[in-house]
Amino acid sequence: MENAPLAIVIPALNRPKNLQRLLGALDAAAYPTNMQVPLIFALDQTQETGFDAATLARMEKYHWQYGTKTILKAEQPLGVRKNLLRCGHLTNNHSGVIILEDDLWVSPHFYNAAQKMWHHYKDHPKIGAISLYSFRYNEHAGRAFTPLKDKSDTYFMQTSSSWGQIWWNRVWARFEAY
């Protein structure tokens, strides 16, 4: 399972310039050569205008050279929450998913780091997701957050963020059941 690819999933609505920046960062990233990495766009629409033409055009024209590319178009307007839940359902079809909102920027090393973290933590019974985002602000406390320096690369939190997160079926199924 270590060599199972995590699918990259990008929920989007109507920010084509932000999406283009993220796609540029994805192009600059390194990916394993021994696997095909699926890229999935989860395109939402609005009641007033439907699909954003510029965003859809960027998705359609984008060449993903590391695996398959899929554009999932919402049949009706979903909103952010339902679109993210739709992304979570993709864990039924993939080993896991990396959720990257369209206004993010990723490190060139994000994918390999995500694969390593997922492989290390995916079977731990108390881990519910992996964040690729380094929290700098605690929204619950309304103040800056600095993790303790303890010679570790990771820290654990009881909160989540869709700003670069890894979900997989075992934990997603439990979340949905909740």
Summarize the topology.
Layout: E1 7-12, H1 16-28, E2 39-43, H2 53-61, E3 69-73, H3 79-89, E4 96-100, H4 110-121, E5 130-131, E6 137-138, E7 143-144, E8 163-168, H5 169-177
Parallel strand pairs: 1-2, 1-4, 2-3
Antiparallel strand pairs: 4-8, 5-8, 6-7
Helix pairs in contact: 1-2
Number of strands: 8
- Approximate strand percentage: 15-25%
Order of helices and strands: EHEHEHEHEEEEH
Distance between the termini: 26 Å
Strand order of the largest sheet: 3-2-1-4-8-5
Low-confidence runs of at least 5 consecutive residues: none
Sheet bearing the most strands, described?
Answer: 6 strands, mixed
Mean pLDDT metric: 90
Helix fraction bin = 25-40%
> Based on CA inertia axes, which overall geometry fits?
globular
> How large, in whole angstroms, is the Cα Rg?
16 Å
User: Structural class, please?
Assistant: alpha/beta
Number of helices: 5
Polypeptide structure, described:
By secondary structure, the chain is α/β, with parallel strands linked by helices. It contains five helices and eight strands; from the N terminus they run βαβαβαβαββββα. Strands 3-2-1-4-8-5 form a six-stranded mixed sheet, with helices on both faces. It has a two-stranded antiparallel ribbon with strand order 6-7. Helix 1 (16-28) runs parallel beside helix 2. The chain is globular. The two termini are 26 Å apart.
Task: Throw out a few tags for this protein.
178 residues; alpha/beta; 6-stranded mixed beta sheet; two-stranded antiparallel sheet; 8 strands; globular
